[in-house]
Amino acid sequence: MSENDFSNVNSYLSFKLGEEEFAANxxxxxxxxxxxxxxxxxxxxxxxxxxxxLRGAVLPVIDTRxxxxxxxxxxxxxxCIIVLDIDMDGESVHVGALVDSVQAxxxxxxEKILPPPSIGxxxxxxxxxxxxxxxxxFVMILDMDMVxxxxxxxxxxxxxxxxxxxxxxxxxxx
Amino acid sequence: MDNFKKKFIEEAYDLIDSLEKSLLVLEDxxxxxxxxxxxxxxxxxLKGNSAMFGFVSIDQFTHNLETLYDSIRNGKxxxxxxxxxxxxxxxxxxxxxxxxDSEKDVDVDRQHQALLDRMAQIVVGASMTSLExxxxxxxxxxxxxxxxxxxxxxxxKEEIFRNGTNPLYLIDELHTLGHAISFAHLTKVPxxxxxxYDQCYTYWEIILATPHNVGAISDVFIFVEDESTLxxxxxxxxxxxxxxxxxxxxxxxxxxxxxIGIAAIQKLASRxxxxxxxxxxxxxxxxxxxxxxxxxSSIRVSADKLDQLMNLVSELVxxxxxxxxxxxxxxxxxxxxxxxxxxxxxxxxxxxxxxxxLIPIDNMLTRFQRxxxxxxxxxxxDVVFLTEGAETELDKTIIEGLTDxxxxxxxxxxxxxxxxxxxxxxxxxxxxxxxxxKAFYSGANVHIQIYDDGAGIDPEKIRHKAISQGIITxxxxxxxxxxxxxxxxxxxxxxxxxxxxSGRGVGMDVVRRKIAEIRGEVEVxxxxxxxxxxxIKLPLTLSIIDGLLVKIEDTSFVIPLSVVDKIFAIEHAQxxxxxxxxxxxxxxxxxxxxxxEEFNMDVNDTTHFEEIVVVKFEEKRVGLAVDTVIGxxxxxxxxxxxxxxxxxxxxxxxxxxxxxxxxxxxxxxxxKTFLSKAPIDK
Amino acid sequence: MAKVILIVDDSESIREVVSxxxxxxxxxxxxxxxxxxxxRFLDNSPIDLIITDLHMPNMDGIALIKEVRxxxxxxxxxxxxxxxxxxxxxxxxxxxxxxxxxxxKPFVPTKLxxxxxxVMR
Lengths: 174, 682, 121
What we know:
Chain B is α+β, with helices and mostly antiparallel strands and 682 residues long. Chain B contains 19 helices and 21 strands. Helices cover 43% and strands 22% of the residues of chain B. In chain B, helix 3 runs parallel beside helix 5 (106-124). Chain C has one domain (4-119): Rossmann fold.
């Protein structure tokens, strides 16, 4: 079973933020870490949770929920940090994404991935590479470079759909 | 082969750098024979090396330069303005030639020829022999100084005449390689009756002094080596034939008529060597120092290796921190002492490694001197460039980032700052303008200041321009400092005409940006009619700093020890609910910031005492209140990464002995940020 | 009196190059297209050096060298042959036949002159 570029099947790591399921191409995933003490950096943007020590290097950790406009993560035994290799302005940067849980590695055929809906979608389409139907669940495949490159709290939500601004508003389905 | 080429290019750049330096010194001391020798030596090396690696144009070019300086050192020519000018221009041309692609550039070609012509003119005036590159039979050998001495035994087989060989021709050829003495031996010649006229009975022993290597010598015998007995041995790495004692002894043995033999020669050779060495020793002891070759006091190390060294030193320091922690927490007899020793050694190693990576800015300054010299000439202004603190050391990456902005600032000073001679005279200033570059350490920073005694900046002009560009309103009151700061805004310019040299006098925003990239700051101060000072402040971004470890809530922070002034215990009550942010410490009023508040953390009501760390900030003292001060800590700086690039207060992180991350504070930025959101809101 | 050099090579361009180079150095150059042709020059008139290719029609270099060495008048005339690196065996053969030295093809004029000075004054 090939994991690489030449086949029609690509592997994705799926994870959950609340009830919603997302996926990232495993090519971008370096590691999955158990939740560990995160050193908070004062006066940092909301979504920057802080930094951790990853084998002698300092890794920034982003609260993915906050990035997606959800309430900050509440730690459970399932909470973990996905270590990603992101392309930021042409540079390879390591970043940790804090997620509620990690689900599985999905093998998805290219044909099975549908383009992101252009309207009526909760999230801006530039962050979403596509949508897949897995066992009757909808998994949103993310462009991790886009999601984690933006330095400000880019609103990931499609403003046409959004009605309230504060992060306290929970989304349907949560 | 490419590796050798790369090496050559690296070396060539270095040589050209020292050449430039020497030339600038030569300008002020045109009679100094030492410098002239040095310049000649550099040309010579450049020429020799370039030929080997296929840089034909450089070979030709430097050949002529070498000849020129040879004449100078022989007293046939004297160093003058035009010689210096052309040499400096040649240096620039050489740099271009080193860029391989330029070999095909037509302009470069033209310039090449132009420079050669000018050189020829200068030299013809001193009635020298032609500068043209001649195909010398003795393949590029100059002085006898490099000659080594060889002993050659050549016995051709008797039938050698049969294929038309004439051994005498070969002996002749040997002689052309240098200086030789040959002894033909006829001991093999039989009685007359038995001589066959077409047999060769002669054999030779030859002493040859030549700069050529063994290859060149055996080359002579290439057609006959299969048919002869041939032995070539080096008996000395000096020219023994110049040694009269050796010659006398040699002739003495030869006179006896027998073979001299390699053994006897070697004995003579070593005796000759010894005498020479003894003579040298005597001279040295008499205080007469012989002109020594440049001793290699430095070696070239690749930048990668330096990075590796720094990384390893950093890891050592981190591990040592863990060891110290462990030793404190686990009292094992003797362990604490060892851990302290390790700490001492790693500190020394760290200092040593830094001294390797840090480079004095002196190297950068040559470029600036050239710029001032060339530009002032072009502009027709008489300007002297002085430097102070050339020994100040900076990380090489910072130096690289500084060069462009400094060049720009210097250009501005020369173009817009220093006035024409006439204007200066009118103002009663000395005709010669002055530009001074000063470098010095200040607290946790390195300051680089450029001062010119030129026209200064007119704050009124700036104000007007700013108002007309809508940057400020006419009523706004600004201090001079704030006015000068406007210069750094993009697109701002008060220059009335665009010059080729520095454009519109704009680019200060680029300068500021470039300096920000190396985490520095730049400021301008000026007095109209008197002069302008531009100050660049750079943090010492050494990757290991001595710090003070403090704790606030659950997070550890490191404050660079170089900014720490004093630490006080302070009552909690004094920190909160204050009307102003002043506290009395040691009898003085000190402004302070309660970091818990500033960081939007909960205010600590539980403890009675907290600690306040007084740090140096600009010329003042400011207190930073923390929960506790833990102690001194050697912090290996780790970058926070791109996500935190614009963070104002934290300049990096470090990993503590227990694996947690501590944040390193940039107190200057921090305090500035606090102040800018200051009292009105509080 | 100028020295005389005989060049023997079936390739016209080689003959041209060698003639041109040597004439510039002040030699008189005779040119032959193969061994047979060369023999007509060997009429006991002075020849100071023979340069010959090895591979030629009618009479090749090796044969020519043997012929020359057999002649009383030309027994000791220096003979240089032209060879490519790969012809090691040929080199041995030519030397056994009596050649003085060799020049490796391709050669630049300076190499030619250098070889000359080993066998001729």
